[in-house]
Amino acid sequence: MIRIPQLRVVDENGEQLGILDRNEALDLARDKGLDLVEVAPNARPPVCRIMDYGKFKYEESKKAKRAKAKQHQQKVKTVKFRPKTEEHDYAFKKKHIIEFLQGGDKVKIEVRFRGREMAHLELGERIVARLLEDLQEEAMMDGDPKMEGRNLSLMLSPKKKASQ
Q1: What is the rounded distance in angstroms from the CA atom of residue 23 to the CA atom of residue 9?
Q2: Which end of the chain offers a freer environment for a tag, N or C, measured as fewer CB atoms within 10 Å?
Q3: For the whole prediction, is pTM greater than 0.70?
């Protein structure tokens, strides 16, 4: 697949063999039972390496898998309340919100209103204000609470800790 006639060739041990003709480099690789792989196609002349291509691809996939395992994808978790949420339920949901925030995820808080509850929006605002007061150590608001249809919603992000 290499089309350029002159190549800078590096052997399997990392030693430079110099600038060689393409056919000469391919013959050298075949004699060793390895492949000629173009590693820097934009260089002039392009750099090619004599290596086992299957082993190279395997090591690259392992390296990519290790890098992916180390990164954390931030998710948005949703916790729903009602205007008449009881104390025990409130404490239980607050505990879950703290766990989500400590895990590095964002949390969307929704207070759902049904029927005539829409006449008492202040009950939902009280719940949101109480949550913000209770979570001021762990979370910061991403904007003000807003009404979306029959839901009062608010986004919370985890605070950056000094130890992180």
Answers
A1: 12
A2: N
A3: no
Helix and strand numbers, DSSP H then E, in the chain: 4, 9
| CATH 3.30.110.10 residue window(s) in the chain | 76-158
Residue 73: burial class (beta carbons within 10 Å; 0-12, 13-18, 19+):
exposed
Structure tokens at 61: 């996939």
Q: What are phi and psi of 11, to 5 degrees?
A: -85, 180
Identify the H or E element spanning 100: helix 87-102
Q: How far apart are CA 50 and CA 135, in angstroms?
A: 59
Question: Each residue of 99-149: pLDDT tens digit?
Answer: 999 988 999 999 999 999 999 999 999 999 999 999 998 899 998 999 999
What architecture is domain 6-68? Answer: Roll (3.10)
The CATH 3.10.20.80 portion of the chain extends over: 6-68
Q: Which CATH number fits domain 76-158: 2.40.50.100, 3.40.50.360, 3.30.110.10, 3.30.310.50?
A: 3.30.110.10
Confidence of residue 156 (pLDDT cuts 50, 70, 90): very high
